[in-house]
Design brief:
There is one protein chain. It is built from 17 helices and 6 strands. It is mainly alpha-helical. The protein has one domain. The strands form 3 sheets. It has a two-stranded antiparallel ribbon. The longest helix is centred in the N-terminal third of the chain and has 27 residues. About 40% of the residues are buried.
Length: about 400
């Protein structure tokens, strides 16, 4: 019973980011406070700790695996060689948390009935949609009780805030309880395809399609071009590959509708300098990799090294490179990072993934090529652990 309650709460509160940040001396760059360098204890961390206590035998069995122990040993070496060992140790703990969720993913889907999983996702998705729509309409954050779920204080006048413009009308891109609209979009994009492809959810079609509707709206109103394009491409692939949809005209009609809706939101003008900013960050990351090819700069220490570069863009030095692969290699180095990536790819190939499982992988790959939130932000990081645990569990039925 305790397991069911904790699993339900974890899924329900996963989109929230209520937490206590600890801003230490190294959490400031050029006098500016940087969240990425602040060790933080989130409400979801406490839930994961309680899940660890209740499921200790399963978790210890998982961590006794020689491959897992070898990976952790490599991470310890990385901490030892890190530019900022304190923050690297913090991210070492976060990776252990990631692996705990990974190890419990199968049990979560087995312990909780599909109906309750969908209910948890529906409640959290509806909450995010409600808050996001208010932010979009009012062009500022709501605060009040929403502050305790992680909503940031935002308005159109906030420096660096994400905006969108349609026919001369400027909007605040909704953040929900996330750190950025792109993070919100990626989170619900991955959940969309998890629910879409998980066979057992078909027992509750009303709940399933309601969640798919809510999550797709969140992707669109985020105005995240990468997430919207990924949504369009992968949904089209799903419709083409799904043999149950025998009517070709039906498939074509659905793709056309998605294409038209996508064009409406893609036509919105967002940050005109976003490409230039991302190119600058990618150049910085390549330089960092060349400077520290063997050991990397250390887990979570990327911004310490990047702060040494000059930037044409105000306060942009406190943003990680918008590519999870470059970020990972920058921090882990070519040897350790390359080995860990090889082990992951090898596992994916060995499992002979289904079409639906590959769709989930592609969501992370496509969006990860253009953003960093899968490795840097609490909600996306833990969701990726859950989904990867689902994918690499042999017995879970996914289309």
């Amino acid at each position: 019973m305790i397991n069911k309650i904790l699993f339900f709460l974890f899924l329900l509160l996963l989109p929230s980011q209520l937490g206590k940040h600890f801003f230490l001396d190294f959490s400031y760059l050029s006098g500016v406070r940087v969240d990425y360098l602040a060790p933080t204890v989130y409400l979801t961390d406490i839930i994961v700790f309680l899940l660890t206590v209740v499921n200790l035998k399963i978790i210890l069995k998982f961590f006794k695996n020689k491959k897992v122990l070898l990976s952790l040993l490599l991470l310890v070496i990385n901490i030892w060689l890190s530019r900022l060992p304190v923050i690297s140790f913090y991210w070492f703990i976060k990776i252990i948390e990631f692996l705990i969720i990974f190890s419990l993913a199968k049990k979560i889907l087995v312990t909780l009935k599909e109906k309750y999983i969908l209910v948890a996702l529906l409640i959290s998705g509806s909450f995010e949609l409600f808050l996001s729509l208010i932010q979009l309409i009012n062009k500022h954050s709501v605060q009040g009780v929403f502050y305790y779920f992680g909503e940031r204080l935002l308005s159109l006048s906030t420096p660096g805030v994400a905006k969108a413009t349609i026919q001369g009308v400027e909007f605040l891109r909704p953040y929900g309880t996330f750190s950025h609209p792109n993070s919100l979009a990626g989170f619900f994009l991955l959940l969309y395809f998890l629910v879409l492809t998980y066979k057992k959810f078909n027992r509750y079609l009303a709940l399933k399609y309601l969640f798919l509707f809510i999550s797709s709206i969140l992707v669109f109103i985020s105005f995240s071009k990468v997430a919207i394009v990924s949504f369009l491409i992968l949904t089209t692939c799903y419709l083409i590959l799904n043999t149950k949809l025998s009517c070709r005209l039906c498939k074509i009609a659905r793709v056309l509708v998605l294409f038209i809706v996508s064009l409406i939101f893609l036509s919105a003008a967002t940050d005109p300098l976003t490409v230039n900013k991302r190119i600058e960050l990618m150049k910085n990351s390549v330089t960092i990799i060349l400077r520290y090819p063997v050991q990397g700069v250390g887990l979570g220490s990327y911004l310490i090294e990047q702060a040494k570069f000059s930037s044409r863009f105000y306060l942009f030095f406190n943003q990680p490179v918008h590519n999870i692969f470059l970020l990972f290699i920058s921090e882990m180095g070519l040897i350790i990072g390359g080995f860990l990536l090889y082990r992951l790819i090898d596992q994916l190939i060995q499992r002979r993934l289904t079409k639906g499982q590959w769709l989930l992988i592609f969501v992370i790959i496509f969006t990860g090529f253009f953003d960093h939130y899968w490795l840097t932000l609490q909600q996306n990081f833990l969701l990726m652990g859950l989904v990867m645990g689902v994918i690499l569990s042999r017995t879970l039925p996914v289309d």
